[in-house]
Amino acid sequence: MTLESEIPERCLCFDARRTSRLITRVYEQFLEPSGLTATQRGAMKFVEDRGALSIAELATLLDLDRTSLRRLLDPLERDGHITVVAGTDRRTRLVSLTEHGKTILGVSDQYWQQAQRKMLEMLGENHWRSLTTLMHSTRKIIHSRDSV
Q1: pTM of the complete model
Q2: How confident is the model at residue 148 (pLDDT cuts 50, 70, 90)?
């Protein structure tokens, strides 16, 4: 059997997305009381950690195209968690947390920590470390060779 003819479960993309959905489901069950999705919280954490970021910078950090990032940011802006304003160059848009966003992000921390503990409990420390190391190195390899 050739690689091309293997069943969908053998497809790296399909398998990675299935696994990602399962992990995301755990985090989002815990994060639900905060009103944030796992992806929204992740984006907000980048902004909290690094300060105001341009749309392009945030898209790069999150490995998202600008259209997908805009769909992610729109509800956060609508709900008053972030502001998106023109930068010094009118073509640049800067994303910042509002005070309300900082508060919500702080509230989400306890739920995120619960999700982290649950994942560690389910996976065990060795599997957790192996998985995170593999994901980090995979992103690094793809970024270094990305020509698509």
Answers
A1: 0.85
A2: low
